[in-house]
Amino acid sequence: MENILQNLFAPEVRVCGKWLKRYTLWHHLLLKAFQSPFLSEDPDERITPADVLVAVSICKTGWPHRPRFRATPRSLLWEGFLLFPSTFRKSAEALHSWARFHSEGPSFWRDTSKTGGGLTAPEIYSLVYGLTSKAGLSELDAWSKSPGQAEAILATVAEMEGAEIHFCDPQELEEAAPIQPADRAEIEALARRDLGEQRAEAFMENWDRNHAN
Q1: Which of 73, 33, 83 is nearest to 54 (CA)?
Q2: What residue spans define the domains of the chain?
Q3: Confidence of residue 3 (pLDDT cuts 50, 70, 90)
Q4: How far is CA 115 from the centre of its chain?
Q5: CA distance 100 to 36
Q6: What is the rounded CA–CA span in Å between residue 9 and residue 91?
Q7: Is the pTM of this model over 0.70?
Q8: What is the mean pLDDT of the chain?
Q9: Nearest to 4 by CA among 173, 128, 149, 137
Q10: Distance between terminal CA atoms of the chain?
Q11: d(CA 7, CA 148)
């Protein structure tokens, strides 16, 4: 699915008994601040049950609030459940996939050469500033956007202002361009197919006049 549509229809997910709706720029910044291993692309980085619970608490926190990591009977219960390998794996994979879906932006606008946790903290602030200054969003709305949505909105604004960026790969657009008719006979056949007999005749008369000069 095209990245923008993938982000638009990004799912909610239930992890450790809590529903997570949208993965936002605020969540991404908090995970950065707490050095969450969920943002690491190091294959040797180990994720623990505690990391899952911390990430869930962060992703339930809306801007401008800070997450609370108080031990509760519910969190202690889930910490025990996460000791089972199957439960832990299912929870960690669900959380990671959910964040990834919400982070998908325009594939040819984003710098795909970066590695290691995606957006940096300065880039997150740049997106928020862009949403407030260019798109006119409030701070609450800006921080509540997912990374993918923020990139798509700012890419649209930039394109409207004349920037040479595209949601589609120009090469793909060129490859998908319709084949142009080679001669008059093909043009007439297409005109009769799409316009009907009478309108096709009028079209061809006009075409002949233009190409006679």
Answers
A1: 33
A2: 1-175, 178-213
A3: low
A4: 17
A5: 15
A6: 21
A7: no
A8: 81
A9: 149
A10: 48
A11: 6
